[in-house]
Model the fold of this input.
Amino acid sequence: MEKKKKKHIVLWIILGVLVIGLAVLGWFAYRVLAQPHSLFEDPVAKATAIPAATPLAPLFPVVTEEPVQEDNAPREQTAEAEPSAAPSDSSVDTIAPKGTLNIMLMGIDAYEDDTSTSGTMPHTDAMMVIAINFDENTVNLISLPRDTFTTAPGYRGYYKFNGVFNVGGGMDNPAGGFELVSRTAEQWLGGISIPYYYGLDFEAVKDIVDAIGGIDYDVDQSFWNMSRTKHYTKGIKHLDGDAVMGYIRIRKEADGKDSSRTARQRRMMVALFKKIKDEKLLSSIPALINAASSGIYTNTTLLQTTALANYAANLPSENIHTLAMSGTMRLAFEWSFCFVDQENRLEIIRDVFGIETDPIGTCTPRYERWLHNTGFTVLKSLRQCEKVFAEMSDQKSAGVVFSDEQIALYSDAYNAYVKLHGMFDDATEELGALYTGEEKTLTEYQEVEKAWAKLFNEQLDTVKKTTAQLANEIGYTGKLQWKLQYVEWYDDADINEVKVDFR
Done:
């Protein structure tokens, strides 16, 4: 009798476990199928805060001429981490429009062995934001120009957008690179948060296309496949993974415009989605991603990817819209940069996210020219000050006791540095607004630029004099370089914190 009772208890326990298991599975299935958005964290909470560039904190009590506001306190000065003097617009508050989930999709110009088809380092040569509006059941694909002249949040300097991946770590630290690209895209899209990303290299794209059996596609121009072993002409053609990669990377064979290439990428993405959807292959997306895992990088979970695939299965193709930021290409010494059309940018942000934002004045040809004429000299000078201050910090940490005269010299140099830092921020704000505001005559632009140049020249004289005196007094072991040497700004470590081969 006792044996029978124990058997019943075991059966009840097993039954209870099964019921609980089914309930949990049902709950997950409901979230995956009916509430995919519930599987993603609050986008604002997930987004990484972007630090604003501020002057170094003083080593000694100093009464500055322009005190830093309490809500924008300077970072602690340390010898190990020397803060940058990057433009202040590297700071952006992230927001999340109601019902919208934003995902960064990046194509990496890399093979399995981390080599690239251009230059010495792989870049994110295709960048697209997938904006999923669960409330309206729509998806917007927004292409971002890879050659955009941009800052990288938290880093000193100016870069091409596709090189931001390398600033954040590149293939040595892909997660850091993808995160930084996402943070940079946030500031370009008016502060909307982009908490999730997918990155795919060449091999992963080819593997996925081959896994679905390739695609029949109406080719709009002739091209070679990626491996340059087969040539395709216009018309309906069956493309395998190698051919798809060749097609979406057409550039030299076409009009040479990056905007044309991003348009082909968006069209191909929609076509691949339609094939996967029509042939009911969406449920296999997680398996496809898992199969090509060596070339796919993401901060999403398999459950989240499954939820997105199931959501896509019920999304009408006509609910997918494609957009692209546009701009003009200008040569800055040996590199061509894209200067984004701010009206087009603001219109996209308004239409997709329903928010108003400001133009980015630091992405204009005139601002880049002002940097060459004046701004880079200012940034170079600020960096020399920071180096001297950092060495003095090292000495203080090592137990050196400074005299009243040395501290007075430091106070003079620090005040001059803080004032110059503030002037650069003020000039950036005023000139950025000027360059993106109502069009002015060339003379009107030049008058404002000359006025700032005069002010900077006067302050630079003070900065150089006080910093040189301090450097001499403390026995500074470095060499003060106040101007760019025989390299361009993108190769000068005092301007660009991370050296990137933009090819």
Residues 90 and 153 are 5 Å apart (CA to CA). The first strand starts at residue 100 and ends at 108.
